[in-house]
UniProtKB/TrEMBL annotation, chains A, B:
Protein name, UniProt field: TetR family transcriptional regulator
Signal sequence segment: none
Region (Disordered) location: 170-189
Species of the source: Shimia litoralis
GO MF assignments: DNA binding
DNA sequence: GCATGGGTAGAATAAACCCTCTACTTCGTC
DNA sequence: GACGAAGTAGAGGGTTTATTCTACCCATGC
């Protein structure tokens, strides 16, 4: 990614984040990117490519915001990770996850779906390995998705709940395997 | 809602669920609804109204799928609720929540946002009151959102995690208030 | 018998949109 | 100073789209 590409990708990302993936016209995207139409099409030969470019850029930014430069060079607990996710929502993504938004705007685009899956897999993986104690990757995925999606609805309450759940999962994984299936799990409806 | 309205709303709902909110043209929606263009516009005077109509219909269907006619006329535990949510995802919404999808497709439409908020508030409220033990509404929102959003990514694993987290939250609410803030909660980034 | 409300089929319109193309400018390098 | 790579500005083509409008059909009740 050279300078021009970064400028374009950044502009596209903010435009899509602010106005969704379907509303902004290419001319609006051009204004957001701050380049001419010709240059825009040079780096992203179609509107779909503009979406992909923006998402790749956002993926990098998200990872470095949530997992980059730890303050104390030591372990980054689940609690810290969730704090950072909430901070990301507060400052950048008050409307929800941009990857889900992109997939939802074009549900049949398998390329976008691939980007979403890779993004989420990498995030939950990183969260799991960064955590000191071992919480399952699947639990972390549910908690982080829950926080991200509930954020626009209940803001800080969502963060509090996500932290509580993560804390409980941590504590449970340290204990010797309690009975979990009191409830019947297969009931027909 | 008379018969014609139900027919139209149902057709619109399946069309939007299958192809997203932006891709289907009004002619495609007409085919899905199985009526003429004129009749379609009579019941939904603009494309946006078609979206709203579909969402209102889906809200009803979701509530009755997840909370309707309990098998044993007694209590519906959180476990049962989550099973039903997963069943809904399995059979109806493999792509995620249609309300979030609608908002994401038109982030500046405050009416849609209102529908989303009312839908989610009602769901988490109902889940909380239906549960035997008391889990906080906020925890339930995070868990249900997490399950719904993680479902397209990890299917049954997401259900297992959601159930485990809900179970832990239940157990914790029964115990006498353990210390929870071991971690520092405010760290600057 | 027939008026009427409510339906169908589909043409017409006006705007929006994606993408291409031409003509011109700027800037660093030999 | 000339040149080429890479940028800007913006008009235009061809297509798609939402919405409206005309013309017609059919059952039901008076």
């Amino acid at each position: 990614m050279n300078n021009m590409m970064i400028k374009i990708a950044g502009g596209l990302e903010t435009a899509f984040a602010a106005r969704g993936f379907t509303e902004p016209s290419v001319e609006e995207l051009r204004d957001a990117a701050g380049v001419s139409l010709r240059t825009l099409y040079k780096y992203a030969p179609s509107r779909d490519d503009m979406v992909r470019l923006a998402l790749e850029y956002r993926h990098q930014r998200y990872l470095s915001h949530v997992f980059g430069d730890p303050l104390d060079a030591g372990m980054q607990g689940v609690n810290d990770t969730l704090d950072r996710v909430a901070d990301w929502m507060r400052t950048e993504a008050s409307h929800g996850c941009l990857f889900h938004a992109a997939v939802v705007s074009a549900p049949n685009d398998s390329c976008l779906r691939g980007l979403l899956e890779r993004h989420k897999a990498e995030v939950s993986q990183l969260a799991a390995t960064k955590a000191g104690t071992d919480v399952s990757t699947s639990d972390l995925l549910v908690i982080i998705e829950g926080l991200t999606q509930a954020w626009p609805l209940s803001k800080e309450d969502a963060l509090t709940s996500a932290k509580r759940l993560a804390h409980l999962a941590e504590a449970a994984s340290a204990e010797p395997e309690p009975r979990q299936d009191r409830h019947q799990t297969n009931r027909s409806i």
